[in-house]
Amino acid sequence: MARPIIVTCGEPAGIGPEIAPQLLAAGLPFAWLGDPRHLPHGTAFSVIEDLSDLSGVAPDRLAVLRHDFAAPATPSQPDPANAAGVIAVIERAVSLALSGQAGAVCTLPIHKKALKDGADFAFPGHTEFLAHLAGGVDVAMMLASTLVSPPCRVVPATIHIPLAQVPAALTAPLLEQAIRITHAALVRDFGIAEPRLAVAGLNPHAGEGGGMGGEEIAWMIPLLDRLRTEGLSLSGPLPADTMFHAPARARYDAAICGYHDQALIPIKTLDFAGGVNVTLGLPFPRTSPDHGTAFDIAGKGLADAGSAIAALRMAADMAEARERG
What we know:
Blueprint: E1 5-8, H1 16-19, E2 30-34, E3 45-48, E4 62-66, H2 83-98, E5 104-107, H3 112-119, H4 126-133, E6 140-145, E7 152-156, H5 166-169, H6 172-190, E8 196-200, H7 215-228, E9 233-238, H8 246-249, E10 254-257, H9 260-270, E11 276-280, E12 286-289, H10 306-324
Parallel strand pairs: 1-2, 1-5, 2-4, 3-4, 5-12, 7-10, 8-9, 8-10
Antiparallel strand pairs: 6-7, 6-11, 11-12
Pathway: Cofactor biosynthesis; pyridoxine 5'-phosphate biosynthesis; pyridoxine 5'-phosphate from D-erythrose 4-phosphate: step 4/5
InterPro entries: PdxA, PdxA_fam
Pfam family, one: PdxA
């Protein structure tokens, strides 16, 4: 049996607990790491002491690696008392992955304010915390969907910063780092031997020869030319508004974008419910559904598990690619 995937519980007051049992539809070996008290009433589950016990769990029952929290959970009402438990679950999942017991980690959504209020969480989000737990490695965020054809994979070089700060933050070293991390991850995690990367220009029409901005001429083109001499397959800088229709996506395996919305608007338009958040650069595969805790619908039976199921399947595919590599 392939090494199982660890699914972390995320914020207990969000939609994570009700999504967890629906992940059985993926038909993959995984264990949910959390407090079984937080699962929806009537969930069929079996507590296991160790991942090696997973094979004894019936396919219609959720395998639970028990991690007791300080308090029960009330949908849509995060309890600061549970913040430390959410953090500890992530730490435990990373430990299982680093030790080789788990093949990948799939994280359900956390609520950063709840963690800060309840446990002084010092990280902007999951990605940065995971990079810290893995030893401070350089990482990049990819949003990916294989449910559209051709697949759509996007990597924003800058992430959660105001748009006004992007031109100063998007430097040649930062863009080079995003390109190198993405290239290596496509080989290692997606089994693409010779990745093709498309790089978006920062400005409209990729600067239009300097008439709409100078970053492309000043440093983006020289950077891409230098990386091409190393054998990397790069196109760009390209006008971002013509990069994401189907014929354009067929010409590359991933797109590197300058900032958050430049990358996320196209993928969320193409596949709003099935997009997957992938952290590139970690020593283990990590995926997450591309949505938040959804407090407004938590506990109402309205949560769509599509993105979480896609995240679990992608985690399994990435783990398999690493095993083959």
